[in-house]
């Protein structure tokens, strides 16, 4: 599945963030941009997994709807952290100072990266033999 492959590939890049110079504003900007991309890939991957499960919300659901359905369907999706990620992703365009950017980068590294990894691990366990078979 292309969405899964893109998600996994981009996650491996984002996981390099903690080793970077996070005092550099250019690096912080890159981490924030990679987070936004990773979040988009995540909710769209969840949408596809929910469609596989026959969940009707996957037909036209918004990111919030998809996250709520994923929480109800999968025990490895933490509703609170994913809804906070949605809020952070929506607020990215309103970050105008270094302190706010640094706070978001810290949140990405400490809270969001583990959630992205947990999602990958959970989906791997749930669908490794069905959805994610290499073709």
What does this structure look like?
This protein is mainly α and 135 residues long. It has a single domain, classed as Up-down Bundle (Four Helix Bundle (Hemerythrin (Met), subunit A)), CATH 1.20.120. Helix content is 73%, strand content 0%. It contains six helices and no strands. The protein is globular. The termini are close together. The relative contact order is 0.16. The model has no long low-confidence stretch (mean pLDDT 92).
Features:
135 residues; mainly alpha; Four Helix Bundle (Hemerythrin (Met), subunit A); 6 helices
From N to C, what is the helix and strand string? HHHHHH
Which CATH C-level class is it? Mainly Alpha
Q: How much of the sequence is in beta strands?
A: under 5%
Report, as a whole number of angstroms, the end-to-end distance: 8 Å
Tally the helices: what do you get?
Answer: 6
- Dominant shape: globular
Structure, briefly:
This protein has helices at residues 2-14, 25-52, 57-60, 63-73, 79-91, 98-127. The protein is mainly α and 135 residues long.
Q: What is the topological layout?
A:
Elements (H helix, E strand, L loop, with lengths): L1 H13 L10 H28 L4 H4 L2 H11 L5 H13 L6 H30 L8
